[in-house]
Design goal:
alpha+beta; four-stranded antiparallel sheet; globular
């Protein structure tokens, strides 16, 4: 089962280009089905792709914020966090990354924070039990600095950034229908073919 979202938002504001926005994507998990899986393994692959405006100069070789206009990061709500705690953690992580540090890594991710944030196409895979994933109800997309943030050009302040987010959920368990409950919740139209005589 794969969910695809495309969106845009203006991430920075003010003369100092402080972060003003991020996107929170609630996940339409079939929580009861995931809980029923118990300790069965579930894999969630998260892919984030976005467009940057590259700097016309060669400054990117000297400063990590000089080549790309901005960066985006994703994070999954933790299995023990409620939504308010998750939002606080995302804000804290965005500030820490701007300051040059990152939070501790989760052992559930294949690449983790250090390996997945290069370029403008990020992908990582979370592995855990269905019961654990049932509580991870949100994915946040948040911005980090680039040359838009570090120069004084006011014409870049309100430019939106575009991105696509893909979430693929799978399990090795047989007979588990993840698609139908999600399609029902999202009101996905079902195609039927009617034979014409």
């Amino acid at each position: 089962m794969t969910l695809i979202t495309q969106d845009s938002f203006a991430p920075f504001s003010g003369d100092k280009y402080s972060m003003r926005n991020f996107r929170l994507h609630p996940l339409p998990w079939p929580e009861d089905i995931l809980r029923d899986l118990g300790s069965a393994e579930v894999r969630l692959r998260v892919t984030l792709s976005y467009f940057i405006e590259p700097s016309a100069s060669r400054r990117g070789w000297r400063n990590k914020y000089a080549y790309a206009s901005h960066g985006l990061r994703f994070d999954l709500q933790g299995r023990t966090e409620n939504q308010a705690e998750f939002l606080q953690r995302v804000n804290r992580e965005a500030q820490n990354e701007e300051g040059g540090s990152r939070s501790s890594e989760s052992d559930r991710w294949f690449l983790g924070e250090r390996g997945r944030h290069l370029g403008s196409l990020h992908q990582d895979e979370w592995t855990g039990t269905g019961a654990e994933l049932a509580h991870c109800n949100n994915v946040a997309i948040y911005p980090v600095g680039g040359w838009w943030k570090n120069n004084g050009r006011k014409d870049r302040r309100d430019l939106p950034v575009r991105y696509a987010l893909l979430l693929s959920l799978q399990t090795k368990e047989q007979g588990v229908d993840l698609y139908t409950p999600i399609a029902t919740q999202l009101h996905v139209p079902i195609r039927t073919s009617i034979p014409v005589a």
